[in-house]
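Notes to self after the Tuesday call (sharing in case useful).
The group wants a holo model before anyone commits to mutagenesis around the pocket. I volunteered. Ligand is adenosine-5'-diphosphate. Logging inputs and output together so the record is complete.
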Amino acid sequence: MKLAELGEFGLIDRIKANVAASPSVLLGIGDDAAALVSTPGQVTLITSDMLLEGVHFDLSFCDPRTLGRKSLSVNLSDLAAMGARPRHFLLGVALPREIPLEFMDGFMAGMLEQAERFGATLVGGDTCASKGGVAISVTALGEQRPELVLKRSGARPGDLICVTGTVGDAAAGLNELMRGLREGFLASRQLDPTPRVEAGVALAEAGVASAMIDVSDGVLQDLGHICELSGVGARLELSRLPLSDEYRAACGADPYALALSGGEDYELLFCIPAAREAEVERICAGLDLRVSVIGEVTGGSAIELVAPGGTPYTAPRRGFDHFGSD
Ligand code: ADP
Ligand code: MG
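Result:
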């Protein structure tokens, strides 16, 4: 069956039928706007991300269910980076009329399974026909106590720079996908990233981080945002970058280039006062999540890269920029 036979309202009903009720949703899908109950004492954090066919994904190598999961994950990662707990989300889709219904069924199954895993409820959206490819826009809402929200500003000279998980995998995975290698750890890190929601919330609630961001555009680019907004510089020790064995096997002669500039790992990059290091290790160990100190915040404004042995390193690329030339 084609989407055109079901129609816009048939599709919305089909989506709605699979959404579980939630006590915080007074009115969900079906009215002109949703009505949500906020948790007393908390502020709402709201974030939006678009995924475009041909720009962010290629339907020839991502199945609809995984794409559904990722479309929500990238938004949950932004909430995690603020230390917010996900609560609700909206889904805008533009779909070619001839797309099979199975595409949307698979996509929604993936999106709603990820939503359930992280405690977010779908409360509305918009649906239209596309004359080009598939376009997806998710807006996610989360909550946190205002004093615990983690911003990009707030890093201080002397703070340690930490990152969860491993970096460079998703970019190496994209290279493999483009070469036709459709399976394995690196490809799955590109197609199906895990938003570090529990870690983001736990770090915020422990009050240990001075600044936080998620790694969507590459360590260097995203650390650059923290530095700029905090008015600080940084020194990164490349020997301390957490690299997976799979990444090391795939990265070629220079292991640092892609680890620094590769986007879409959706790990958390954050700064902490040096005295809180053991506490951060405990929090992440409790979540079974690797965490590494990769450098230190400095007083200047530059990001200094130090290769093993102490020699300076110049990154061939900074990271992803939609309007950039890379
Ligand atoms: P309106 O024309 O008043 O904007 P719509 O017909 O676009 O209303 O939407 C009807 C209802 O379905 C609304 O509650 C809207 O939030 C919801 N909705 C539309 N598209 C989606 C979607 N892709 N996912 C979830 N809810 C949707
Ligand atoms: Mg509408």
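Two things stood out.
Residues 64-81 form the longest helix (18 residues).
Residues 126 surround magnesium ion (ligand 2) (CB under 6 Å).
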